[in-house]
C-alpha cells in the first residue's frame, strides 16, 4: 500500500503559467509601441513635408511688391507702358502728387517744375509748356493710374518686371536690397532647396530652389529667412540652405538745388513791410533806414474767387527801392476773405491764373521776391494752400525770384493758425517769416504784451523742432507797434479794450504824462501803468529795449533774419539799433 507521500511523488507535475514569457511579450510590445511613438514623434517633428502648394502664376501678374510686401493695388500695362496707381505713388514715391478733379489732371510739382498730366490725353505741360505723351493718365474703376515713362527723371524709382509672371518689383533710390544665394552642395549638385509657405518644415513647398539661385532676403525669423524670388513669389527658406550674398543699394542721384535764394553776403535779412491800402507812400517822405535790405509793399491782393488779382504796384516806388539798393519782395495777400480764398484755390486752372498774373507782375516791376500772406483761411483749404505754393514756387524760381511766406506761431485758431501746414510749406519756400506778435490781440479778454520775449522764443523754436523748418529758412517777424490797454470795472465786472499805436505815440504819451516805465522781466519789456479816472491803462512797450532783445534772439537761434510790421510805426533809432546788433560779432 502506497503512502500519500509516495502517491504524490508518483503523480505527474502540474503545468505552470509561462510568467516569464508573458513578461517578455509585454516588454516587447511596450518597446514596439515606444518605438512607434518615437518614430511618429520624429516624423511629426523632423520629417519634412514633401507636398507642393498649387501655384497660379496669373495671380502674380501686375502685382506690385515693395520691400517684400505686396501692395493692395496692381499695376497697369507693362514694359514702357507700365502705369502705377496714384495712391501708391503718393504713399511710396511722392506725397505731394495731386489729382485735380476740376480738370481731371494729375499734378506733379518739383523744385523747378509743375507737370500737368490730363486724363485720357496724349498732351501734357511742364511749367505750362506743352509736351507729348506716349501713354495717358487713365482711370480704372475708382483708381487713377499714372504712366511712369514721362516721369523717369522726376521719380527715380527702380521698376523690375518679371518676364515669367508679370510681377512688378519696385524700389526707390537709396533703398537697400539684401540678396542671398542658394548654397551649393557638391555631393548632390541636383539637390534643390525647399521654399515653404511658412517657416516650418511641415509647411507645403511653394517652390524648389536650384543651387546658385539668387533671392531677396526680407526678414530673419530665427532659423528661417523670409525670401522672395525675382519672379515675385515669396516664402521661407532655412538658413542652412541660403547664404547672404550681397547688399544692393539703388543708386541715389544727388541733385543741386535748381534755385539758390538770395541772402545778404555775410549778414542777415532785414525786411520791413510797407502798408499800401489805396495808394503808395510818397517816397520823398521816407527817411533813411540804415541796415534795411528788403522792403515788402502790400501790392497784390486776391480780388475774387475766379483767381483775379488786384494790383496796387507803383513804378515810382520800384524805382526808389532799386535806387536805395533794396530787394523788392512784393506782398501777395488773399484779402483775408475765406470764401473767395476757397473758390480761388479750388482748381488747378484758377490757381494757375493767379500764378500767371504774379509772374507777369514780377517781370513788369522787376521784383526780386514775392511774399505770400494768406490769413483768415478755412481749415478745409489747408491742402490747397500748400498745393498753390507748390505750384507757384517753380514759376517764381524760373523767373529768378525769392519765395517767402508769412505764418503765425503754431498755437491759435483754425483760420489764423491751424490751416497752415508749416512742415509742408517749409519744404517748398525759400524763407518762412514767423509773425511772432498778437500774443494778446486787439479783442483779447485780458490785457497783455503783444509779443513777450519768452512767448516769441517758444513760438519760433516750436516750428524748428516740431515742423522741422531749419533756422536758415526762418525770419523773425517783430512788431513795431504795441497796444494801450484800458481796464474798467463796473458792477464787479472788468471790461478790457485796446488800441494799437506805434513807438513814437507811446514815447509822446510817457513825456506828456511824465510816466517812468519799469522793466518787466517776465516779458522782457518796459512796462507802464497809470490811471485815468476809474480806468487803468496798461502798456507793454515796444522800444529799443525790446527790439534789441528780439534782434539778439535772431543771432542766438541763427535765424535767417528779421522782418518788421510795419514801416512808420518805428522810431528812427530802431533802424540803427537793429543794424548794429545784427552786425556785432559775438
Considering the chains and any ligands shown, give keywords for the structure.
five-stranded antiparallel beta sheet; 13 helices; alpha/beta; 586 residues; TIM Barrel; SH3 type barrels; 33 strands; Copper Amine Oxidase, Chain A, domain 1; eight-stranded parallel β-barrel; single chain
Q: Which SSEs are present, and which pair or pack?
A:
Layout: H1 4-10, H2 19-46, E1 64-66, E2 69-70, E3 83-85, H3 86-92, E4 98-100, E5 105-109, E6 114-118, E7 123-126, E8 129-132, E9 138-140, E10 143-147, E11 157-161, E12 168-172, E13 176-182, E14 193-196, E15 205-209, E16 214-220, E17 224-228, E18 234-238, E19 242-249, E20 269-274, E21 294-302, E22 309-311, H4 315-323, E23 327-333, H5 338-345, H6 348-365, E24 369-373, H7 382-398, E25 402-407, H8 414-418, H9 422-426, E26 431-435, H10 453-466, E27 474-479, E28 481-490, E29 493-502, H11 503-513, E30 518-520, E31 525-532, E32 535-541, H12 544-556, E33 561-565, H13 573-583
Parallel strand pairs: 1-12, 20-21, 20-33, 21-23, 23-24, 24-25, 25-26, 26-27, 27-33
Antiparallel strand pairs: 1-2, 3-10, 4-5, 5-6, 6-7, 7-8, 9-10, 11-12, 13-16, 13-19, 14-15, 16-17, 17-18, 21-22, 28-29, 28-32, 30-31, 31-32
Helix pairs in contact: 6-7, 12-13
